[in-house]
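Sorry, I am new here, but would you mind making up a protein's amino acid sequence and the tokens describing how it folds?
***
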Amino acid sequence: MRHVFPTMGTVASIELPDDHAHRLADLRAIFRATQARYSLFDVDSELSLIARGALDLTDSSDAMRETYLRALEWRTATAGLFSPHRPDGILDLNGIVKADAIEQAGAHLDAVGCDRWTINVGGDILVRGADDPWVIGIADPTDAQGLISSVSLRPPRRAVATSGSAQRGDHIWLGGDPGPARFVQVTVVADDIVTADVLATAIVAGGREALDDIADRWPIDVLAVDREGQILATPGLRPQPPAEVTRMAG
């Protein structure tokens, strides 16, 4: 059974077996708590208090400081291409908290014995189910109704995340020269959703050099589309006809 609800400025689509449908309330609570803590659009959120100087980070909750530390670790690993600090100095954890909430929701389903599910939040997808692979379509950034490829998710590759300007406009802080990002869309397939999401953002920020470096250093697959429509892909994610797609990323 599929359940759809708005969250974190986008839409969540969660598929659960009928005998675990009652777990939806738990999952919604996870996303509500994440939004309430980290949203910069909510003036009363903990992160908003930090952003306007009403709360020191050192006095914030354990969850806030742990998330910040995780983001800093990714900043170091990506040589600053991913960062929790905006150019204006505001602490912004938006680049990691959605994936973190997806990860928490998946861990909860695993803990209660649900063995087949999908969590799709704004095109970032995590799946569980060892029998048949989940086939995920990758959206065409030039055609809102089209697909450019598909990928089969099966253990240990369970996560796919897409970043770029195709859906939300230019919103990623670039690590190279000023100007629009070279890639309008980057899709990363990885073993976990946080890695997929963070590295997709880092590749958009860093361009072709970042794509080559990151694809060499992490066990991931990447499909990137540049502003001229050229598609670059690692061997495991070559464009292919997106037949029999069950979910869509991007």
